[in-house]
Write a structure and sequence with these properties.
heterotrimer, A alpha+beta, B alpha+beta, C alpha+beta, B: alpha+beta, Ubiquitin-like (UB roll), DNA polymerase, domain 1, 2 domains, five-stranded mixed β-sheet, 14% strand, C: alpha+beta, Uridine Diphospho-n-acetylenolpyruvylglucosamine Reductase, domain 2, Uridine Diphospho-n-acetylenolpyruvylglucosamine Reductase, domain 3, Enolase-like, domain 1, 3 domains, five-stranded antiparallel β-sheet, four-stranded antiparallel β-sheet, 12 helices, 33% helix, Beta-grasp_dom_sf (chain B), 2Fe-2S_ferredoxin-like_sf (chain B), Diverse_Oxidoreductases (chain B), 2 iron, 2 sulfur cluster binding (chain B), (2Fe-2S)-binding protein (chain B)
């Protein structure tokens, strides 16, 4: 494999950070030489298929798996009862309140099922088709119980219960208040109240989940398509009581996650238990339709919002009352997701009072959990939509209303009403740049013209001036929020005898490009060529310590850990170099990978020479151990706060309701940038997902609690043909919370774009009296909004094209619409 | 069981296959050609796209028996003598992949696109790739990569390049 | 997911194929391009006992000139149909609609006949066949018969063919000169099914509409011929007013479904708007 590098080729010291280095990961990925979990099938591997509940809620009366055992190739068949004593309960690491209701969550249901798709039995067979065929032979009697689907109804007195023993469908109520909201609302010249629904989304990483567990005596290696090998290892040990040091978790090539693989899945626990019981490698890979039902979903909140302002547009206070759908169980961080938004409803604005109340509600749906942005997109949507509503109410340009409220660049660091300290930012600069790239005035003129002409295709302009808190880390803060762990990250640097470098990171990439960006950091800090650095990750045996990848934390935490570890290497090497050069340490300078005596450039030792001398250890200073290897664990004092201004121009066909995105400009400030190519790619992908929430995606349940969007034919992921070309640019205001000045970028595009798009659509339709279109803004919903119908009727899903009626067991229906 | 004979990436295989065996599972499980992944059940995602007798197909929607007598090219069959194909190179140069799961299908679909249109516009690339979903890149760099490869393949730098 | 097991036959000729179908019984299915069938098999929404693969019968791929009509072999792929000079000359509406079907890879495998025999009201080609007064040529061991498009599409995913019958081709009358055509497909994403589609052919005589043919996709359990629109627009001047008022008849005789992407009410609205647009585009 020879991939020719463009751009920066030579490892010129000091030139790596900030350079658009092409990714080293690509070579194997473009050639199909990949290690997806499902690509691995050790000799003797058994294949697992799960039988899943076709009911939203039912009591399991009887399970008879004996007939499945007789099928050719079948090695074992089990029900949940067969594992009841050893499968434990899937973990929730974030008990957000002391009195949070936290039900048991058996990996395989034993006595009751609470969402369609919950596993109830499994078959283990020689091959996948044998396992799958035998599912038909498992006989289960269910006693159906009432589905609980609507959050408001679920909280009402006398509602049917998801978990009978809890006595309520309320998991928790979490409150944050600062300032005197009553005073802010009292006699406020402007009060705006709105209700927004953050629809349920299916994360849809392109690689379906897969897990392979290989037993070796009492030891187990579990390969999994996971974002969190380290957390998974600890949790598997906790759940199964197999000692942590007997479990090795490997995240090989992982095909995207977006939060969906930040989970401890029942199937992972069961693969481990099956491998232990059967003594053979066991593999399970989900199908897409299985995954849509069972991989945790995202969003699904109802937001009831109140904004109080002065006549001049200055915000007095903001109130957010949230209902958050937990689904049927609390998974790894389910209850904490909406809480991550609690600190973001104030956005980039100053105000006197703020109140946030969130109630977590159980329903008989797939559990929710992290999905790209996790709580922050919801909050940003709320405030950015409300800012546009305020602008419309006052007849002020939406940019101007923001200017009147945002934190000015000279006011940083700024303590917000939500209790965070924003370390840095320059909203003016990002906005100015965005307006210029967007040609804002020109588009406003076109909008006015179309309005005058009563053009059936109207133009709308949407603004989103966002910030977000990411680099999910500060352990003390996480502790204060009752999160079950810290948020540090670990890195170690090994200097080999030949002077080559191995970097070990606890961060676990699944598409982000760590192998490239981490090598850039190490190359610069150590003054070695980029090509001399190898980055190791994603295997608890190789990288024993880490907190993994999510919440835009890799660079701002893990990258900084690496930065510090490199500096420790240099300090160790300095002692050896000083000894070899017969100079005092303080007289040495280290540039471009070489120690030299200040003022005597010709005498020096490269890091490689020092490494070799250290390896030989023939002549080291007294008390110096023969190793330059170093590690560091970084735990920041604060989150990082990327921000930016996104502008969207949307054409809305008022006759059909179809929305066409005409132009999208994103100016992001993610602080110092290691690799602008990777940053731009993250922004592009984030935009696509945020736009998809605004326009296309929604997980829909029918009245019986069946998910009707089980396939990609029904859950609409946009293709290249459905998305516009983005104009992206950056401003660079370094973070002050870490020595590199970096901030996270992974979620920014998703967080910012959804309100920009919906604001644009609503802006187009304001002359028609429209002030909201619920998401996703389907053509029908736009059309109904134009007819002043706030609630679109929900037709019975499943007819007229699409595969929406695909049943859970996938075996008892004889016809449906088909792909063409 | 029907017996099939297929050429895959330059090698010939003869196998007895169950009629229900999908081409993609034949490639992955019988031939060990795991470079072609599976992303959905409904032929929407295109991750499994390969060339069959020179034209793109979704190998999850073709039975192995239907491929009998065909010449199949997967992403693993691209490039000559250990070099990379211009399309693969362009995906790298333009940062047209992140997690890489859709990439084999994207590359094969892109080659098919250029077979019919050697100089596609941005819109033509977007429409030509409507059957391939990517969740990471937002497609912008994929579009750039395909156009870059097209240019390079129209004006090959010295060497002949074919899929 | 993996299809349930089935028997498989690959007849070499139409005669063989109909014999196999006759012997196979009701639970056999014809495998054409498989692009509609394969997802249903994988999801186990279809569990046939046997598949009769007609993919190797070369004669079924032919597109030929038959005097005052074209005969399009059932196994001609969408890809082939879109590029075929005869189709482009005499039935450009078919090419226009076929271009909107799914995506290029699916169009390489998916067939003209397969799409029609599948009789999915959300499919793009049934409405086109209806608008063009196509005739379906069907064979079985009992002989050959012709089914006019008006009788072919019976109900949701149900055609007038018997289980032992094989669609061998479709005869499409040549409309003669002077026709403009347009297929207006309205869908949320490029890959998605039509929420509503309008197949439209219009013959102008100077500034007036002499004749129009209009049929609707996904406005009922089967494609719907919009007779009311055709009658209303006949003889009217070529103008937006004519098209708009004629399009008011678009919903006559429809039973639009409700699903994730559109309610019956919205579909009715769309049918009207899109019909007007399709007429205008065809009349250019």
């Amino acid at each position: 494999m020879t991939v020719q590098e463009g751009g920066v080729q030579e490892g010129r010291a000091g030139a790596e950070i900030g350079s658009p280095r092409k990714r080293s990961e690509d070579a194997r990925l473009i050639a199909g030489r990949t290690q997806w979990t499902d690509n691995m099938t050790p000799q003797g591997t058994l294949h697992v298929a799960f039988l899943r509940s076709p009911h939203a809620h039912a009591r399991i009366v009887r399970v008879d798996a004996s007939q499945a055992m007789g099928r050719p190739g079948v090695v074992a068949a089990f029900s949940g009862a067969d594992f009841a004593d050893e499968q434990g309960s899937l973990p929730c690491a974030w008990p957000v309140t002391d009195d949070m209701k936290h039900p048991d969550h058996p990996p395989m249901a034993v006595s009751e099922v609470r969402f369609v798709g919950e596993p109830v039995a499994c078959v283990v067979a020689r091959d996948k088709s044998a396992a799958f065929d035998a599912l038909d032979e498992i006989d289960i009697d269910y006693e159906p119980l009432p589905a609980v689907l609507n959050m408001d109804a679920a909280l009402a007195e006398g509602s049917d219960l998801v978990h009978d023993d809890l006595g309520t469908n309320k998991s928790y109520t979490w409150v944050f208040e600062n300032g005197d909201l009553d005073a802010a609302l009292r006699d406020a010249p402007v009060v705006i109240e709105r209700e927004y629904v953050q629809q349920r989304l299916i994360p849809t990483a392109m690689e379906p989940r897969s897990v392979l567990c290989v037993p070796d005596g009492d030891d187990f290696t579990l390969y999994s398509a996971t974002q969190i090998p380290h957390i998974l290892r600890l949790m598997l040990a906790t759940v199964t009581e197999i000692p942590e040091h007997r479990i090795r978790v490997v995240a090989p090539d992982v095909g995207g996650g977006f939060g969906s693989k930040l989970q401890v899945c029942g199937e992972e626990v069961l693969a481990l238990l099956l491998a232990r019981r059967l003594g053979r490698p066991v593999k399970w890979t989900e199908s897409r339709s299985e995954g849509n039902m069972t991989v945790h979903h995202g969003r699904d909140q109802i937001q009831r919002l109140t904004l109080a302002a002065e006549r001049d547009g200055r915000i007095r206070g903001f109130k957010a009352d949230i209902l958050a759908d937990m689904g049927a169980y609390l998974m790894l961080v389910t209850p904490g997701i909406p809480i991550l938004g609690a600190f973001m409803y104030n956005g980039i604005y100053k105000m006197d009072a703020y109140s946030f109340t969130c109630t977590g509600v159980f329903t008989t749906k797939t559990p929710t959990d992290a999905y790209r942005g996790a709580g922050r997109p919801e909050a940003t949507y709320a405030i950015e939509r409300m800012m546009d509503e305020l602008a419309a109410e006052l007849g002020v340009d939406p940019i101007e209303i923001r200017r009147r409220n945002w934190i000015a660049h000279e006011e940083f660091p700024y303590e917000t009403i939500a209790g965070l300290t924003y370390d840095s930012g320059n909203y003016e600069a990002a906005t100015d740049k965005a307006l210029e790239l967007f040609e804002y005035d020109k588009l406003r003129a076109e909008q006015a013209d179309r309005r005058d002409r009563r053009d059936p295709v109207q133009l709308g302009i949407g603004v989103s001036t966002f910030t977000e808190m990411c680099g999910i880390a500060p352990s003390r803060v996480l502790g204060s929020l009752s999160y079950g762990a810290g948020g540090w990250e670990h890195a170690s640097v090994r200097i080999l005898a030949s002077g080559k470098v191995e970097v070990v990171t606890g961060s676990s990439p699944h598409g982000q490009g760590h192998e490239t960006a981490w090598a850039q950091i190490a190359a610069d800090r150590l003054g070695v060529p980029f090509e001399d650095v190898r980055v190791l990750h994603g295997d608890t045996a190789i990288s024993p310590k880490g907190m993994d990848t999510y919440g835009s934390r890799s660079l701002a935490i893990g990258g900084v850990a690496l930065f510090s570890a490199c500096d420790k290497v240099v300090e160790k090497a300095r002692r050896v170099a000083a000894h070899l050069l017969e100079a005092a340490e303080q007289d040495l300078e280290f540039t471009a990978g070489r120690f030299s005596v200040r003022g005597v450039q010709e005498e020096g030792k490269t890091l490689q020479e020092v490494a070799l001398a250290t390896f030989a250890a023939h002549d080291l200073p007294d008390g110096v151990e023969p190793s330059l290897d170093s590690d560091a664990t970084f735990d920041p004092e604060n989150f990082s706060f990327p921000h930016g201004t996104h502008l969207c121009a949307a054409e809305v066909d008022t006759e059909t309701g179809m929305v066409h995105l005409r132009k999208y400009v994103a100016v992001d400030d993610v602080g110092k940038v290691i690799n602008p190519l990777i940053v731009e790619g993250q922004v592009h992908g984030g935009l696509a997902q945020g736009i998809a929430q605004a326009l296309y995606e929604e997980a829909v349940y029918d009245a019986d609690g069946n998910l009707t969007t089980t396939t990609m034919a029904d859950y609409l992921i946009p293709s290249a043909a459905d998305l516009p070309t983005f104009t992206t640019d950056r401003t660079e205001t370094p973070a002050t919370s870490n020595p590199m000045g970096v901030k996270g970028v992974g979620e920014a595009g998703t967080i910012a774009s959804t309100p920009a798009v919906v604001n644009a659509i609503v802006d187009a339709l304001r002359p028609y009296g429209v002030n909201d279109v619920p998401m996703p803004c389907t053509p029908e919903r736009v059309w109904r909004a134009l007819r002043s119908e706030t609630k679109p009727d929900t037709a019975e899903p499943g007819a007229g094209g699409g595969l929406g009626s695909a049943s859970a067991s996938g075996s008892d229906s004889d016809s449906a619409g088909g792909a063409q | 069981m029907p017996r099939i004979r297929v050429e895959v990436d330059g090698a010939t295989y003869e196998d007895d296959v169950e009629p229900r065996l999908l081409l993609v599972h034949y490639l992955r499980e019988r031939l060990g050609k795991v470079g072609t992944p599976v992303g959905c059940d409904t032929s929407n995602c295109g991750a499994c796209t390969v060339l069959m007798d020179g034209m793109s197909v979704k190998s999850c929607s073709v039975l192995a028996v239907q491929a009998d007598g065909s010449d199949v090219t997967t992403v693993e069959g691209l490039g000559i003598d250990g070099t990379t194909h211009p399309m693969q190179r362009a995906f790298h140069e333009e940062h047209a992949l992140q997690c890489g799961y859709c990439t084999p299908g994207m590359i094969m679909a892109s080659l098919d696109l250029l077979r019919e249109n050697a100089d596609p516009s941005e819109t033509e690339v977007r429409e030509g790739l409507e059957g391939n979903l990517c969740r990471c890149t937002g497609y912008q760099n994929i579009v750039k990569a395909v156009r870059r490869a097209a240019k390079e393949m129209r004006e090959p730098a010295g060497q002949e390049v074919t899929p | 997911m993996i299809p349930a097991a089935f028997d498989y036959a690959r007849p070499a000729s139409v005669d063989d194929a109909v014999r196999v179908l006759a012997d196979a019984g009701e639970d056999a299915k014809v495998l054409a391009g498989g692009q509609s069938l394969m997802p249903l098999l994988r999801l186990r929404l279809a569990i046939p006992d046997a598949l009769v693969d007609v993919g190797r019968i070369g004669a079924l791929r032919e597109i030929r000139d038959d005097g005052d009509a074209l005969v399009i072999g059932a196994m001609a792929t969408h890809h082939q149909v879109i590029r075929d000079p005869l189709v482009r000359e005499h039935a450009p509406l078919i090419a226009a609609a076929a271009e909107t079907v799914a995506d290029p890879a699916v169009r390489h495998r998916g067939t003209f006949g397969g799409s029609l025999a599948h009789a999915d009201p959300a499919g793009d080609l049934p409405a086109v066949a209806l608008a063009l007064d196509a005739v379906f040529l069907v064979r079985s061991v009992r002989g050959e018969r012709e089914i006019p498009a008006t009788e072919f599409f019976v109900d949701w995913m149900t055609s007038a063919m018997e289980p032992d019958e094989l669609l061998v081709g479709v005869r499409v009358p040549k409309p003669g000169p002077g026709w403009g055509v347009h297929y207006e497909k309205f869908h949320r994403t490029a890959q998605a099914w039509a929420i509503v589609g309008v197949a439209c052919a219009v013959r102008r005589n100077g500034g007036a509409i002499e004749e129009a043919r209009v049929a609707l996709t996904n406005m009922g359990p089967a494609p719907v011929r919009a007779d009311g629109v055709e009658n209303a627009v006949r003889g009217r001047p070529v103008s937006e007013d004519s098209f708009r008022s004629a399009a008011e008849h678009a919903t006559e005789g429809t039973e639009p479904p409700g699903d994730l992407h559109g309610s019956p009410e919205y579909r009715s609205h769309l049918a009207t708007v899109l019909t007007s647009r399709a007429l205008a585009a065809a009349a250019v």
